[in-house]
Amino acid sequence: MSFFDWLLHEQVSIAGSPVLVREIVGNVFGLASALFGMRRLVAAWPVGIIGNVLLFTVFVGGVFDTPQDKDLWGQAGRQVFFVLVSLYGWYRWYQTRHAGAATGVNPRWATTRERLELVGVGVVLYAIAYPVLKSLGSWGPQWDAWILTGSILATYGMARGFVEFWLIWIAVDVVGVPLLVQAKFYPSAAMYVVYGLFCVIGFAAWWRIQNREAAAASTPEPVVVG
């Protein structure tokens, strides 16, 4: 059996239910991406894309061979969006890094206008996602729609360097864990728990970085008298 055959078809048993190895591997790449993101490394984006591609194939059992009998089209759809936004974030952080910055992004709080825009976009996205996912037969469409909407907002916020993006991820994880457990996507549910804890740490880290950089920017340089 080749590596790709193994990756696509191998299963393990968790809590008495079959689980695809590629679901586990995809989530490992997702966690690595989050770790790189907290450290503001450009590598967060390409690593995340690999995980997104693998997880897309996990959540659409009607298209790919999966042991679960439930399709989560919102989960699958957000993987597609992740890839698109990751390409944008990868480019943006790469440009920042090669402009002389030590890291790929400088964290900052979103302005009041930017927050209102995020809320407005979130309402519109949810209003579109819910009926679409329901018509596709997605399991738990009201919750799946929020996970898709929140994931889009959080990924965009990460690309822009908004400190608040961590809080959006936490709100996604709170909904995602029970949904994925009930649908028997156990590795993804477990990773959502890990992501939630990690997001608390990431939020605190970016908050400290933002405060430190803001303080440094507001400190006047000493005047040298010749």
Q: What proportion of the residues form beta strands (DSSP E)?
A: under 5%
Largest sheet report: 2 strands, antiparallel
- How many individual β-strands? 2
Helical coverage, percent range: over 70%
Description:
By secondary structure, the protein is mainly alpha-helical. Helix content is 72%, strand content 4%. It is built from eight helices and two strands; from the N terminus they run H-E-E-H-H-H-H-H-H-H. It has helices spanning 3-9, 21-38, 44-59, 73-98, 112-136, 141-160, 165-182, 186-218, and strands spanning 11-14, 17-20. A two-stranded antiparallel ribbon has the order 1-2. A hairpin with a 2-residue loop joins strand 1 (11-14) and strand 2. Helix 2 runs antiparallel to helix 3 (44-59) and helix 6 runs antiparallel to helix 7 (165-182). The longest helix has 33 residues, at 186-218. The termini are far apart. 39% of the residues are buried. The model has no long low-confidence stretch (mean pLDDT 81).
Q: In a nutshell, what does this entry contain?
A:
The protein is mainly alpha-helical. The chain is 72% helix and 4% strand.
Q: Can you lay out the helices and strands and say which pair or pack?
A:
Blueprint: H1 3-9, E1 11-14, E2 17-20, H2 21-38, H3 44-59, H4 73-98, H5 112-136, H6 141-160, H7 165-182, H8 186-218
Antiparallel strand pairs: 1-2
Protein name: Nicotinamide mononucleotide transporter
Keywords: Cell membrane, Membrane, Transmembrane, Transmembrane helix, Transport
InterPro entries: NMN_transpt_PnuC
